[in-house]
Amino acid sequence: MLLHTLLLAVVGLWALPAVADSTDARCEIYPKGEDRAERTLPCTFSQRQGNVTISREDGVVHELAPSGEAVGNFRDQAGRPVYRQSGLGDQGLIFRFPDESLYVYWDRGMATDAADNPTRPFSTADYDATTLLRCRALTAEAFGQCPADILRMDEGQASIVVQSPAGEQFTINFMTGYVNATNRSAEASLDGDTWTVVIDGQEVYEVPLAAIEGG
Fold first, then answer.
1. Looking at the domain that runs over 129-213, which CATH code has it been given?
2. Does the keyword Signal apply (predicted)?
């Protein structure tokens, strides 16, 4: 209950008076213009009277003070403009700095198990399999890897939960006769033994038939 109350305060109630809240978190750092995280590391997020402090394990501390009347506008300790966005839903917050973007996730555990579990945050505890899918922004030339969980069904069907390069999770459904995605548009084509799925006209994912059907 305490954690639930804290998250509500962090996500929505930025005008709370004189109440200090702090929580362990996970920080992903994206250099400006890049769609892949440069680093992932534990951090601590705290707020007091609208001021935000993000303390990273690498020793970097961001002190953010509200700027102007618009909600989500800040200045850091060097006077640079910083913008807060809510594109991660209830998973965390995004802070846009002039030279990088900082994604703050409330699940800190995912920052410490990358070596032991390359498909983090997914596991086979609730799904049939995990995998790494080739993925990229539509405008990018090189593919990266996106973790995914696979729930297989009869007749070669499957639902695959994907974590995008931006850290958002969504599901691609490979059903008999159609392919769709939850809360997103999906355009899919099958070439040989690999599906290519374009999400919202912005992201490309390659899904082998073997991942869908199993072996």
1. 2.40.128
2. yes
Check if the beta carbon of residue 130 is closer than 8 Å to that of residue 123.
yes
Q: Do the beta carbons of residue 46 and residue 35 sit within 8 Å? A: no
Would you say domain 2-111 falls under CATH 2.30.29?
yes
| Most confident of the ranges 34-43, 80-89, 174-183 | 174-183
Sequence ranges of the chain with CATH classification 2.40.128: 129-213
Q: What is the pLDDT of residues 56-102, one digit of tens each?
A: 988 999 999 999 888 899 999 999 999 998 777 778 899 999 999 99
Alpha carbon of 106 to those of 6, 11, 67, 91, 167: distances in Å? Answer: 11, 11, 24, 6, 12
Say if residues 26 and 104 touch (Cβ distance below 8 Å). Answer: yes
The pLDDT of residue 109: 57
Indicate the pTM of the whole model. Answer: 0.51
